Amino acid sequence: MPESPPTAEQPSVVDRLTEFAEQWPSLDRDERLEAFRHADQALASDFFLGLEGAQRAVLIHDLGVQERRVWLRLLPADEAADLIQDVDEDIRPSLLGLLDYSMRAEVEALLQYREDVAGGKMNPRYARVSPDMTAQQALAYLRFKAAEHDSLVGYIYVVAPDDCLEGVVSFRELMLAAPSRRIREFIDRKSTRLNSSHGYISYAV
């Protein structure tokens, strides 16, 4: 049944959202939490999705575990990753644990990708993944890389946190692996000699 048009006694969704947003800055932290909890689902959802990163992180920090689960799962992967980067480090693992398996793999891959970009570890000539990633995380990580670079490679280098090369995996092996299987379980460790121009001169055999 179609909704009735707003009347003077029934403000529109936009009007209610505008009023709520205008009141927000004048509230202290506890009052904001209380107001958010008492807002109806539609209003709270629209407001949460429109919050800036820092304010969203503060709100998530103050919510209970079950509330965090609901609001985190409302976000797309890139915004969930933004949020987790914005919160205190001590609660990041617990927030990741609230995501479903598929979303968590994508968010963790995106966080790793951003860390590697910031650390200057990305190179358009080859792809690298961590041996502790799952196959699903590695595929998500490579999708983010492919969005930035046009070149495709047939093999992916498996590189430990200390930048020691542990071996390679092929795209075919990665695609066929069970999503939860760790990369270290199917590394090809026989390929221990690589062109030094790739920047790897230490090898795990």
Write the layout of secondary structure elements.
Layout: H1 13-23, H2 29-38, H3 41-50, H4 53-62, H5 65-72, H6 77-86, H7 92-96, H8 101-118, E1 127-129, H9 135-148, E2 155-159, E3 165-170, H10 171-176
Parallel strand pairs: 1-2
Antiparallel strand pairs: 2-3
Provide a descriptive summary of the structure in words.
This protein has 205 residues and is mostly helical. Strands 1-2-3 form a 3-stranded mixed beta sheet.
| Poorly predicted runs of 5 or more residues | 193-205
Please provide the ordered H/E string of secondary-structure elements.
HHHHHHHHEHEEH
Number of strands: 3
Rough outline = elongated
**How much strand content do the residues show?**
5-15%
Rg, Å, rounded = 22 Å
Q: CA-to-CA gap between the ends?
A: 67 Å
Main β-sheet, spatial strand arrangement: 1-2-3
User: Helical element count?
Assistant: 10
Largest sheet: 3 strands, mixed
**Overall average pLDDT:** 82
Helix content: 40-55%
Structural class: mainly alpha
In short:
The chain has 205 residues and is mainly alpha-helical. It is built from ten helices and three strands.
